[in-house]
Amino acid sequence: MELTLGPVAYHWSAEKRRAFYARIAEEAPVSTVYLGEVICSKRAPFFERDLPDTIDRLTRTGKRVVLCTLAEVMLKRERQATAELAETDAFEIEINNAAGLLARGPRPHRIGPFLNAYNEATIAWLAGQGATHVCLPTEMPGPAVAAAAQAARAAGLGVEVQVFGRAPLAVSARCYHARAHNRTKDNCQFVCEADPDGMPLATRDGEPILRVNGIQTQSESYVELLAELAELSEMGVTHARLLPQDVDMVAVANIFDAVLSGRTGVAEARLRLAAVCKDAAFSNGFFHGHAGYRHIERRSANA
Amino acid sequence: MTGTTDFSQAGELVCPAGTPAALRTAVDAGADSIYCGFRNATNARNFPGLNFTPEELEASVAHAHARGAKVLLALNTYPPAGKVDLWREAAAQGVRAGVDAFIVADMGVARHIAETHPGARLHLSVQAAAPSPEAIRYYCSHFGVQRVVLPRILTIPEIRQIKREIPCEIETFIFGNHGLMVEGRCSLTNWLTGLSTNMDGVCSPAADVTYERDADGAMRSCLAGFTIDRFGPDETAGYPTICKGRYTAPHRPDGYYAFEEPVSLNLARLLPDLMEAGVHAFKIEGRQRSKSYVRQVVSAFRHAVDEIRAGATPDLADLAALTEGQKETQGAFRTKKWR
Description:
The complex is a heterodimer.
Chain A: E1 2-5, H1 14-27, E2 32-35, H2 44-60, E3 64-68, H3 76-86, E4 92-95, H4 98-104, E5 109-111, H5 120-128, E6 131-135, H6 142-154, E7 158-172, H7 176-180, E8 199-202, E9 208-213, E10 216-224, H8 229-235, E11 239-242, H9 249-260, H10 266-276, E12 282-283
Parallel strand pairs in A: 1-2, 1-11, 2-3, 3-4, 4-5, 5-6, 6-7, 7-11, 10-12
Antiparallel strand pairs in A: 7-10, 8-9, 9-10
Helix pairs in contact in A: 1-2, 3-4, 5-6, 9-10
Chain B: E1 12-16, H1 20-29, E2 33-36, H2 54-66, E3 70-75, H3 84-97, E4 101-104, H4 107-116, E5 122-124, H5 133-143, E6 147-149, H6 156-165, E7 169-177, E8 181-186, H7 188-193, H8 197-200, E9 209-213, E10 219-223, E11 226-231, E12 246-249, E13 252-257, E14 264-266, H9 271-277, E15 281-284, H10 291-309, H11 317-320, E16 328-329, H12 331-334
Parallel strand pairs in B: 1-2, 1-15, 2-3, 3-4, 4-5, 5-6, 6-7, 7-15, 14-16
Antiparallel strand pairs in B: 7-14, 9-10, 10-11, 12-13
Helix pairs in contact in B: 1-2, 1-10, 2-3, 6-9
């Protein structure tokens, strides 16, 4: 199973992003890096300015680059951006919206986690339409992941599952970052840039619960499937996705790589991960068919 | 299944039914069509005590057809891998019962019905999250979708523009619960409860709801033990729907409606504009509602649509009283500022 780095969900400053990808290119043990603004079309111009340099930097160190479409495509600029990306031949693309599927037609493409490929019937359909790789929705439980992976492999597709990072829980047409600051999406003034790991929401009795990232709602805790990596691999999952958080992602990738290669046990890896992600709580409930926020301990954790 | 004649007259009133009795009530109150689902995960209102057995559906379709009304079967959840047969069997049962259309979201389900039951009429559920002409055309060209239920995130000018670029009918929600997240793309309930809106058809389930009284007299409404909102002694405690709770943020220490206030959608006043923009069918939310609610709301909108068709201005003052917490919104439909 290979490690991949998903797209940055947040509105990081240009300097922060440049520094981030420079280190990923040189140091992170990931085979594939997904690039692109997936959440908010207003942010896209900031990202695109640096895109050629970022691609160049990553490909020079041997990373495979995949460009991602927006999750939500509604406005004219979003429709246009999706249509343009669908014309890309130089790089693979990951499609997150049916508008992208229409534009891409039968040419090869990857299916993103926002496209709701939950089952073998949908995966078979998409495979017949040119899909080469599918990233499953984060909320899928283990048995469904296994059945979906089997179907995808039978159709010759790569199969990817998120193993690290905040769970993407919802998108909306409304920007909750703007709303929190009594603004609207159209006059947001990019207030989301102040929260590089999302804006924390807590319950009124003080329990951290969710994160706001523009139009997206994420989990407070990070998904962490260290103990499940071996099982995922046995199921036929070919790629494990790390979602970028505002922590040392090179260190995170190294920890997952160490477990994948058998150099480190799960228990030690968890201690190291907790040290890298200082304030984070970890969850694996979705995979185990429980409430997503929970962390299920399993007997094989130290195996 | 549907023949070659038009499915309905523009201004079709699409009404909810959580039980056979509610379906009969909706028919009597003037519904042009009624949507409903089976008692399982194949539809997005998989609530205890709601929905139809195959036998009930068959009898209900016969009842509706005898009175000139149509029945639309919601198969609008996403089957998790390994469980697709439940959706396929539901489609076969729907065909046997004689339903007039299937409301679908999952591509695998849509393809299955299009191939296995080629005469069946497909409507694209709001759960498919298709708010662009391109996304809608994708489902029309591949699966023969004949109607799209638009997400509640578009303004009327945007709907008018979409209508010009798609080959199918448009249905929009006009009344009832106002979901904030893009439908079919929300795992909030699964995160807190372990039941998925997409895979299980469950949203903020009642079985996980508790109300806790604090020492200071405040009431907390909770979902799976999480405080979704906290109400002072003079406030009415609301249902803990995750996207309608109050939360704190670093610069909002007192708690605020981070997503939306507990308001209901009411587009009564926009009906003429929606019809003019090319909306073919109006959908009333609320399969979980009582018969008396269905009767009141459907009758009022029946009257309104008939008035508009006759060129008159409808009076809908009574409908405001039915909305959740007595507060209503026109949501995204009236202005981009909603976003």
